[in-house]
Design brief:
D-Maltodextrin-Binding Protein, domain 2, Arc Repressor Mutant, subunit A, alpha/beta, single chain, two-stranded antiparallel sheet, rod-shaped
Amino acid sequence: MEMRPLRYFAAVAETGHMTRAAENLGIQQPPLSQQIKALERELGVELFRRHPRGVALTEAGRQFQIEATRMLQNMEAMQQRMARVAQGQEGALSVGFTSSAAAHRFMPEALRAFRRTYPKVELQLRENNAAELTEALAAGRLHCGLLRVPVARPEGLLFETLLREPVVVAMPSDHRYALARVGKRARPLSLAQLCAEGLILVRRPGAPGLYADLLALCHAKGLQPRVVAEVDRMMTNLNLVAAGVGLSVVPASMTGAHAHAITYCALAGSGALDAPITLVRRNDEDNLPARHFAALLRELAAR
């Protein structure tokens, strides 16, 4: 059933008069009467009882008015919702992130700001490592992702650096370097000192990223790091540091994780090494909430 006959019916039912309903609708009275008669034939019932001063609803007409009103309201609600969707004010947004990106205060601030600005957009959050997030984005399972140094750059994805922060060394709190303090802080560690210890890396062996950059920096200085473990996630990395398995390098915003068991200090001679916050998205993304989210991230990062 088309919606126009329902609107015509609703107008006649409201006014109780064909001519006044036609005026309200902006049409002539004869076509309106024909539409109502056609609707009655389609339904097989009489909707109005005609009388000299207008029309009145029959019992079937009163029942039909309930259903017609519901259908018209649903149509109006759908039209309003689709208008919001067309403006990116409503819909769903799936965001992936690494644990180290989430540790930076930028991410929770961005999510809160987005929820305030777009309260009707459903946020779907997924945590994973950088490699799996990149694969999910390339496959279309996520709208955008926040990670550190990209570990792959598949065709069709855009990588945008939003922020940069320094890296620090994470070591067990009972390590000899952790006990060698200047005041309340552990002394900065040199690359040579770091390479002499067992290193824990967060990466797929052979893949690029923050830890590949660390290894390249060490090799450029003629140093040979001793890697004792390679793991998939930053928190696994810190769990192993806390357990005394070895030392690692993490973004400065991770400082504070396992504060009872890990000491953090500066890494001397690592000026070329930092930990960015990188936005990853598809270059043909047509999800408007994702575009709004990217614009909001840029705005917040610029501040």
